[in-house]
Amino acid sequence: MKDQFHVFNVGEMPELDSKNKELLVVLDTNILLHVLRYSKDSREKLFQSIEKVKSRLFIPYIVGLEYNINKKDVMYSLKNAKSSFKKKYEAIKSKTIKDFNTEFNQLGSKITSSDEAEVRKKIKEYFSETLNETFDNFFEKKVREELNLITVDNQSINRFEELYEGKVAEKPEQSWITEIEEKGKERYDKKIPPGYMDNNKTDISIFYDIHYQKKYGDLILWEEIIKRAEDEQIKKVIFISDDLKEDWIFKIDDEEIGVRAELREELWIKAKADLFLLNSNQFLSLSGVGEEITKRDNINLNRNNIYVDNINLNRNRIDVDTIDEYFLNENEYLGRKKYISSELKELMDNERRNFLKRLRTTITKVRILIDKINYADTNYIIYRVKNIIENLDILMSSNIIEYECGLDVVKDLDLTSERIRLQLQLDNNFSEIRIKLMLDELLSVLRKIEFNVDIETEENFK
Question: What beta strand segments (E) does 18-149 contain?
Fold first, then answer.
């Protein structure tokens, strides 16, 4: 039976061993573009992770092409991000002063006192000076920390691209691409993975003597993986991407269960290879480079108290009075302390895992809605956004975000969610475009939280 249904018994995730010639590590376009979006420290961790598997690295031609097509756009948007935000920040400051002056003038008009005008003028001047100073100090001490994470430079880009040298597949024939697109029509109609979630895309990518419909991008990439695995007699394929939708991942009620069995079956039948999927955080953790971020072995009990109030101790069968009775002897104090620390750590880890599961579910919902928003019905969009907001409320009820990411991230998440709420209340001026922009901002914040909270490699994709 196991032989007949091999794809359901593929075993554990293989080690990222550069010496294993039967292993193939495939990078998606979004992973390559992270080089531009990551901070300097995160970029270095990604570099070290990729370098560890350099000899087993494979980049499909379609991935290399999309990376080079999108690279300049990403660089341009990042380079302009600082000046753009600075202008918006100044506009917020000016509007705050203007709104205050308007409301304060209305108050003054109701006061019939000979010295009212002079008093009001001094108060407005003081407000303007105080606000300007507060805004400027906050920008320099806090906002600039975020802006300093944007460090796009050609030197780091060249460093990464040297890693990819000789790892990119040869340019395919147009006839081969056309044949895949013809197959894709039937596959997408039957919802055979991968790629059918992009069926709404209408753009065509053209590069010199080849062209392809972007909706078939994932399918072309998939066929390249199969071909390479078959040609090199690969036994284990690890595909790393941060854009794995339900045409890659099997889900039950929005919970990610594992790799789509159809994909594993196809790769096994055509190339006798097993498929495994990782996102960037899992890749960093498995490679060992992200261990200092994702793994905390020595948790301080005082620090645990930051969000211990969110844990139901009775539900987890921890009875502090019973523990006290068990350790009556003072000589057993150290044993008691170690026991409590161990049990409490387990509670912390469970709480973090549950939080991480809901966080990733929310990220998936936001990502899917962004993909659908251009053609979805307004009522559907509003319904899905409200569902996302409900998940955000649960996430923000935990202190884990503040503990792991700091108050600034908490404020970013709170501000973004509040803006989305306000947009939902504008019945006559509801704008899909504004919602999409806000969801893009929300996805960025959630990704930052995921990176900080992911404390260990989970086995969701085995």
Answer: 23-27, 57-58
Strands, E, within 173-309: which ranges? 204-207, 210-213, 236-240, 249-252, 255-259, 274-278
What token pair was written down for 414? Answer: 């709170």
| Beta-ladder partners of 149 | none
Residue 399 to residues 295, 308, 443, Cα–Cα distance (Å): 18, 9, 19
> What residue has token string 């269960």?
257
Measured CA to CA in angstroms, residue 334 lies from 299, 341, 343 at distances of 16, 10, 14
Per the CB < 8 A criterion, the answer to whether 238 and 16 are in contact is: yes
- The candidate with the shortest Cα–Cα distance to 61, out of 183, 198, 193, 168, is 168
Provide the residue-wise pLDDT of the chain in tens; the chain has 462 residues: 556 667 777 777 888 888 899 999 999 999 999 888 888 888 888 999 999 999 999 999 999 999 999 888 888 887 787 888 888 999 999 999 999 999 999 998 888 788 888 999 999 999 999 999 999 999 998 888 888 877 777 888 888 999 999 999 999 999 999 999 999 999 999 999 999 999 998 889 988 889 999 999 999 999 999 999 999 999 999 999 998 888 998 876 666 678 899 999 999 999 999 999 999 988 988 887 754 433 333 333 333 333 333 333 333 333 333 334 433 444 444 444 444 344 445 556 677 778 888 888 899 888 888 888 877 777 778 888 888 888 888 888 777 887 778 777 888 888 888 888 887 776 556 677 888 888 888 988 888 888 877 744 343 333
Partners of 249 in the β-ladder = 259
Return the sign of the alpha-carbon dihedral for residues 275, 238, 444, 64.
negative
Sign of CA dihedral 446, 448, 451, 454: negative
Distance CA 18, CA 28 (A): 19
C-alpha closest to that of 290 among 21, 43, 15: 43
Q: State the amino acid at position 347 in one-letter form.
A: L
Using DSSP's 3-state secondary structure scheme, residue 314 falls into: coil
| Structure-token pair, residue 159 | 């460093």
HSE (CB half, 13 Å, CA atoms) of 259?
28
- β-bridge mates for residue 27, sequence order: 240
Residues making up the chain, counted from first to last: 462
Structure tokens at 192: 């055979």
Are 316 and 323 a contacting pair, CB within 8 Å? no
In angstroms, the CA 348 to CA 404 distance is: 12
CA atoms within 13 A on the CB side of 416: 25
